[in-house]
Amino acid sequence: MRVGFTLSIFLSCLLINCKSVQVQDQNNHTDEFAVVNSFLSQTVFVENYYFNKFPLVYIKESSGKAAALSAYKYAFNERNWKIGSSHHVRQDTEQWPLDSLQIEKFFQIVNDEKTDEWKHSDFAIENIDSISLGSIRESIKKEKYLVEPAKKIFFLSRPLFLDEKKAIMFFYIGSSELGFNTFDRFAVLMVKLDGRWEIGSRYYDGVMF
User: Fold this and answer.
1) End-to-end CA distance of the chain
2) Bridging pattern class, strands 160-163 and 56-59
3) Ramachandran region, residue 84 (left: φ > 0; alpha: ψ -120 to 50; beta: rest)
4) What's the DSSP call for residue 80?
5) Tell me: the pLDDT tens digits for 17-38?
6) How far apart are CA 158 and CA 112, in angstroms?
7) Which residues are CB-neighbours of 86 under 8 A, at least 6 positions away?
8) 8-20, pLDDT tens digit by residue?
9) Do the beta carbons of residue 131 and residue 153 sit within 8 Å?
10) φ, ψ at 174 (rounded to 5°)
11) C-alpha 4, offset from chain centre
12) What per-residue string of b and e applies to 135-144 under the rule 16 or more CB within 10 Å gives b?
């Protein structure tokens, strides 16, 4: 029962976050490849997820950039609390590049964007596979995940560039071994330092998994 419930939550979150959201010229930014792959190299391959032995799979459909803004907004509104979403974020202005008015401005920019699909060439990673949301739905509906090999699956938005040295993305990772259970989900601030993109902060949206 718990697996079925968890599967429903996982799929619901995917569909919500993949909702049509237009960012003018954002997808053509020259630093997009560097931002995405710098983030993945600092998380997926080094963090101690117990399922690191599983094959790495990305969801073809990109998450909407509005999901990153939503998580940032939640953490921003909770930033003065010692518990909850903000405990992963330093309490200084560099970690809060957008104030409440700027957040709403960016929402106006992204709210009409249509999400696109990731390709293998977007990732500087060998031995990576892909899966569509439709395949996940079918696996859940027909309980194929019970007999299919376990996978490490991540869901990622295109970077939303705040300026030339800052971008935020939404990231969601889980394992199919336990029925697509989620192990982490957050928005991340990427900052360009000395020509390299580094993780600045993570912003959690308060969703429990």
Assistant:
1) 15
2) unpaired
3) left
4) T
5) 444 333 434 444 568 999 999 9
6) 15
7) 75, 78, 79, 80
8) 555 555 554 444 3
9) yes
10) -160, 180
11) 23
12) ebeebbeeee
